[in-house]
Specification:
single chain; alpha+beta; 6 helices; globular
C-alpha cells in the first residue's frame, strides 16, 4: 500500500497517525517530490469511481494561483491528469493506493470501512 502525503500537511500527518495507531503498514511517498504519472492518476481515478475534481487539492495555494476553480470545467480529463502529474501539490492529500482501491483525503468513516472491515486486514 502506498500513502501519498506531504510532511508539512496536518491532514497527511493525521492520516499517518491513524494508520500507525492501527498498525497498518504502508510506503510513504511525498507528493512534493514523487508525483504520480498522468497514467497512474487516470487508472486511480477510474478505480475510485469519484469525480476527477476530488483529486484536486482545492484549498491549496497552487490551485488558487492557477485559478483552477474557473478553469477546470473547460478542461478534458486528460488535461486534468497531465496537470495533476505536473505538480504534486495540486493533488488532494492524503491519498492511499492499495491495488485497485483508492482513498482520497482523510475521511475516517471511509478509512474505517476499508481498513477495519476486511479491506486491508
Amino acid at each position: 500500500m502506498i500513502y501519498y502525503g506531504y510532511p508539512r500537511c496536518s491532514t497527511s500527518r493525521k492520516g499517518e497517525k491513524w494508520l500507525q495507531e492501527r498498525k497498518v503498514s504502508y510506503e510513504f511517498k511525498d507528493l512534493s517530490k514523487e508525483t504520480p504519472s498522468a497514467d497512474e492518476l487516470k487508472k486511480w481515478h477510474k478505480a475510485s469511481g469519484k469525480d476527477i475534481k476530488k483529486f484536486f487539492n482545492t484549498s491549496g495555494m497552487k490551485y488558487r494561483e492557477l485559478d483552477l476553480k474557473n478553469r477546470l470545467a473547460d478542461m478534458s480529463d486528460e488535461e486534468k491528469y497531465q496537470l495533476l502529474a505536473s505538480e504534486g501539490m495540486l493533488i488532494k492529500r492524503p491519498m492511499v493506493v492499495d491495488g485497485d482501491m483508492v482513498l482520497i483525503g482523510f475521511n475516517e468513516r471511509e478509512w474505517e470501512e476499508y481498513f477495519c472491515s476486511g479491506g486491508n486486514a
